[in-house]
Amino acid sequence: MLIGILSDSHDRQARLERAVAELQAAGAEALIHCGDMTSASMLQALTPLPAYFCFGNCDNTLGLQREAKQLGIHCLGDGGEIELSGRRLAVTHSHLSHEVARLLQAEPDYLFSGHSHIANDWQEGAIRRINPGALHRAARYTVVLLDLDSGEAQWLEIPE
Length: 160
Fold this sequence. Notes:
- This protein is 21% helix and 31% strand.
- It has a single domain (2-157), classed as Purple Acid Phosphatase, chain A, domain 2 (4-Layer Sandwich).
- The radius of gyration is 14 Å and the shape is globular.
- The strands form 2 sheets. A 6-stranded mixed beta sheet has the order 4-3-2-1-10-11, covered by helices on one side. It has a 5-stranded mixed beta sheet with strand order 5-6-7-9-8, with helices on one face.
- It has 3 helices and 11 strands.
- Strand 1 (2-6), helix 1 (13-25) and strand 2 (30-33) form a beta-alpha-beta unit.
- By secondary structure, it is an alpha/beta fold.
């Protein structure tokens, strides 16, 4: 299963829409947003595919929660865990250290996070951690296409 991982779109609607379109064209079957969408109107861009998201430090949480419910998008609050293709995936923005610690303690296969606006992929014990980068305030705007069956991650650069 291919999934698209995004983060830190900060109200950049057109860039988020381009990112989703590129991920979908590359074969993504689900989307995971690691927070800082900022406003509820941004959620509409995630609707072409099954989608999950968590809150970031710049998010209007009540607005996002209401809009997500109306659109059928899964809200993970400050952090949560889902299972796709037999893999346990934890998601948090990573601005709350207690959420990161809680999710790491659960020992998922992957922990996806954002916040730093720096793309990264590293191993922490048995857990693979991926930060897809950001769609705002970054040297390059990036997202990740991850094959959950093979573990292959492909970084996609999203144009200005």
